[in-house]
Amino acid sequence: MMTVAAARALRDGAVCFVGIGLPSTAANLARRTHAENLVLVYESGTIGAKPDRLPLSIGDGVLADTAVSVVGVPEIFNYWLQPGRIDVGFLGAAQLDRFGNINTTVIGGDYRNPGVRLPGAGGAPEIAASCREVVVVVRQTKRAFVERVDFVTSFGFGSGPGEREELGLTGAGPQLVITDLGVLRPDPRTCELVLTRLHPGVDPATVRERTGWDLKFADDLGRTEPPTERELAVLRELTR
Amino acid sequence: MAAIAPLADAVAHVVRDGDTVAFEGFTHLIPFAAGHEVIRQGRRDLTLVRMTPDVLYDQLIGAGCARKLVFSWGGNPGVGSLHRFRDAVQHGWPRPLELEEHSHAGMANRYVAAASGLPFAVLRGYTGTDLPAQTANISSVTCPFTGEVLTAVAALRLDAAVVHAQRADRHGNVQLWGITGVQKEAVLAASRSLVTVEEIVDELEPRPGAVVLPSWVVDYVSVAPGGAHPSYAHDYSVRDNDFYQAWDEISRDRDRFAQWLEGVA
């Protein structure tokens, strides 16, 4: 459901900065269903890739073979991402807090002596800063959905409204958080993430149990439409 | 003029104890054969530099070659964590590993600055994150034209750069294509360089989009067919995804890793 919901978040013709794993599956699902003209940009330097199978890494040869252009890594970040030429950036998170700040660096202990060492930032800080909007895809657990992240790898809304503007960040930040339980969006007034939709079969109590802060629910809390036959068929084909 | 030399000789000349060295490759064209030669020659106290330290760096770290790692994303792409890297950071085994951590955009710009002969590069980056507090190599600079405050990153100068490419000619001119990452920048940022290649040809046919490193910016070229395995060389080999999966198992356990290491030496 997470993959299908993420795919639906991508409109036809959008330019999307894609990472491997769920974002790449979602983007390729979208391209085969409702968003034929989605432009896929991978940080390895492939622009407009149209892979006929799911790439196994961001540097998969199928991306280079099917891309409109292959450029160096400095160019991808400096020319394409930094000036705001990418509509949607996908990010994952080891920890996410109520203001959409993301940690993929260290958990527990201090930075020099961490409890758990994670892979680090990669392209995420600048994706979070410069894409027009960011979609975060993450499994909802109490360990991941924390009051405050242990380390800010990628900036969401800091601790509230106005901070992105003060820092001069050009993108709108995390506008959508898609989990295995539902969909969250930032409250336009407070910037705090609010549950706006539940996936089919998920009850509100489960969502509360798996959130490490006092999560607010939208007044008009909706339900995600179940996956269509076509979405499921394409997804099966892709992940075979 | 690049010297064409056997891999062991070239590595001995290019990579020395205590060096700051990058074995670059963005998923594609990763110089595994050269890295394994560094392990065999028992280099120590290296500052390893790479945007995406993956399995090769896990191997070098586990073998005790590294003192410090300068990087932006340390994982086994599509698989999970690097266990030798984690063991070094969390438990100091086989020796403690100092970290200097950046974002991809920051690392790419640090290479560009060094390749350009500049002391630093300017970008919109790291803003609002906890990364700048952890290193002196991220700072800020005020634009002399607009007064805007931007991020500055120090040039990343290397003692040595090692990359893999598809082919070179007999004069040591190198050609690579497909996903070319930051290999050109790394070679131009380094005092000494080694390029391993799939083959040496009489003449380099021009290829659209290919990167050419002219002989006079490269010190050594060594023929190492399959030298990127388990990564790949576009049009010569495919990525051995099974090995990346298998590495998770091999690297989890110190004894299992030691067995693997014996196979390299």
TrEMBL record, chain B:
<dbReference type="InterPro" id="IPR037171">
    <property type="entry name" value="NagB/RpiA_transferase-like"/>
</dbReference>
<keyword id="KW-0808">Transferase</keyword>
<dbReference type="Pfam" id="PF01144">
    <property type="entry name" value="CoA_trans"/>
</dbReference>
<dbReference type="InterPro" id="IPR004165">
    <property type="entry name" value="CoA_trans_fam_I"/>
</dbReference>
<comment type="similarity">
    <text>Belongs to the 3-oxoacid CoA-transferase subunit B family.</text>
</comment>
<protein>
    <submittedName>
        <fullName>Glutaconate CoA-transferase subunit A</fullName>
        <ecNumber>2.8.3.12</ecNumber>
    </submittedName>
</protein>
<dbReference type="GO" id="GO:0018730">
    <property type="term" value="F:glutaconate CoA-transferase activity"/>
</dbReference>
